[in-house]
Automatic annotation (TrEMBL):
The keyword Secreted does not apply. This is Vanillate O-demethylase monooxygenase subunit. PANTHER family: 3-KETOSTEROID-9-ALPHA-MONOOXYGENASE, OXYGENASE COMPONENT, IRON-SULFUR DOMAIN CONTAINING PROTEIN. Keywords: 2Fe-2S, Iron, Iron-sulfur, Metal-binding, Methyltransferase, Monooxygenase, Oxidoreductase, Transferase. The keyword Methyltransferase applies. PROSITE patterns: RIESKE.
Length: 384
């Protein structure tokens, strides 16, 4: 195999320039998951989200709060300060901030100067997740949360986990929308040889990308065969829907049953996995996962078996995306190219969408600046 010729390389680069990659600016005007609700407590939680330092905590009444983790005075991390009631006191010179991010006390000044503050980000707690809006505050509308009611529903037995992904978030979104990799990257866990060749359909909409893949008949890997009671079945059906719901949220839904049985005699077992991606930096990503099933709800041994095996499989993606990230980081950009094939259609469309969203936000730079931390000159501060 030879390298692409200069004209082919040029065409590939032109095509790639319309797709998001690790260098594309983040899309800020979206809800992202800042943390599992269980992580947000009365202890200050520092977290880098979309390249911004954020500190999270709960009020005494239990409400989650997110502020810029950068004091308005001399930029000391507020997360190194202390919570006193519902106020946060900076650990450097003691400036005190309320939950709106307003400075309400400067110990060295008899009267607190007006107008000092740090950014407060809108947060919403839904089910096990705390969502954050880091873009234009005027667009922080709850209706823009991706649909995820099942995460709070009692008829889905759930387990959750987290990976500190050493990769940009675009590569991981592409991984989730491209299931042909199951036969290879996951050959030892939940992939089977027939998976990559199975017929697929896709839906490509504005901001909504879906890949359907029916693997029928198939023999399920132990991870799925054992809990669904389909061990030894060579006529199993594995009906997969992989869905990009937002730049922050991807859902995989799968149905399993014995395809040899008449429809009315089938026991259909369903699983769902929420793959929740929040860029940390351009080369790292918070990867929250919630996995659910609608069968065997009372059997903890199934939960444990599936959790252990699934997270082993997800770790293959985590390692794989870290390896991919290293290639991007260490390759001369002039030599970098990607060939797309037919099965990449949905993920190429998704990457074009992310690029367009980023370009649109860049064009509306003034809106982004309005959401930046409110740093104002200190006037009238008395010197000690
Ligand atoms: S840096 Fe926070 S009070 Fe001075
Ligand atoms: Fe994967």
């Amino acid at each position: 195999m030879s390298l692409p010729s200069a004209p082919v390389l040029q065409a590939l680069k032109k095509s790639a320039s319309t797709m998001a990659n690790r260098n594309t600016p983040f899309v800020y005007n979206e809800w992202y998951v800042a943390a599992f609700g269980s992580e947000v407590t009365r202890e200050l939680l520092p977290r880098t989200l979309l390249d911004k330092r954020v500190v999270l905590f709960r009020t005494e009444g239990g409400e989650p709060v997110a502020l810029s983790d950068r004091c308005a005075h001399r930029a000391y991390p507020l997360s190194l300060g202390a919570l006193e009631g519902d106020t946060l006191v900076c650990g450097y010179h003691g400036f005190r901030f309320n939950t709106e991010g307003d400075c309400i006390e400067v110990p060295s000044a008899a009267k607190c100067p007006k107008g000092i503050g740090v950014a407060r980000y809108a947060v919403l707690e839904r089910g096990p997740l705390v969502w954050i809006w880091m873009g234009d505050p005027d667009q922080a509308d709850e209706s823009r949360l991706p649909e995820q009611e099942w995460l709070s529903a009692s008829d889905w037995e759930k387990s959750s986990g987290y990976f500190d992904l050493q990769s940009n978030y675009v590569s991981m979104h592409e991984n989730l929308l491209d299931l042909t990799h199951l036969s290879y990257l996951h050959a030892n866990t939940f992939g089977t040889p027939d998976y990559a060749k199975a017929a697929f359909k896709s839906e490509v909409g504005d901001g909504h990308f879906v890949l359907y893949r029916d693997v029928v008949p198939t023999t399920l890997p132990p991870l799925w065969a054992k809990p669904t009671g389909l061990e030894g079945c060579t006529t199993a059906a594995r009906i997969v829907k992989s869905e990009f719901k937002s730049p922050a949220f991807h859902q995989v839904s799968v149905r399993f049953y014995d395809n040899a049985l008449p429809e009315e005699q089938r026991t259909v077992s369903q699983i769902r996995t929420a793959h929740i991606l929040t860029p940390q930096t351009h080369s790292t990503c918070h990867y929250f996962i919630v996995h659910g099933r609608d069968f065997g709800q009372d059997d903890d041994s199934i939960t444990q078996f599936m959790h252990e095996n699934l997270f082993e499989a997800f770790n293959e993606d985590v390692d794989g995306m870290a390896a991919l990230e290293q290639v991007w980081q260490t390759t001369d950009p002039d030599e970098m190219y990607e060939f797309s094939v037919g099965a990449d259609g949905p993920s190429v469309a998704m990457r074009r969408y992310l690029k367009q969203r980023a370009d649109d936000e860049s064009a509306a730079r003034d809106t982004l600046l309005a959401a930046a931390p409110r740093v104002v000159p200190i006037r009238g501060t008395e010197t000690a």
